[in-house]
Amino acid sequence: MKNEIILTIGWVAAIQGVLGAAGQIFGDDPWGLLHLWWNIPVGGYLAIFLVGAAIAFMGETTRRRERG
């Protein structure tokens, strides 16, 4: 159960990072939910994506290792 929560948090963070960066690069405003609470620059969104992707990757490998 714990690994599934970590995996979900990683995927959500990665998606929000991509949406925020893509919105600022290709549009006028960032997309996603994070811009509603914080003013994050493009580099911050890319960092959020990288951290989220790393957490999701770690969760996926842990889940596959547990399955055998």
UniProtKB/TrEMBL annotation:
<keyword id="KW-1133">Transmembrane helix</keyword>
<protein>
    <recommendedName>
        <fullName>Integral membrane protein</fullName>
    </recommendedName>
</protein>
<keyword id="KW-0472">Membrane</keyword>
<feature type="transmembrane region" description="Helical">
    <location>
        <begin position="36"/>
        <end position="58"/>
    </location>
</feature>
<keyword id="KW-0812">Transmembrane</keyword>
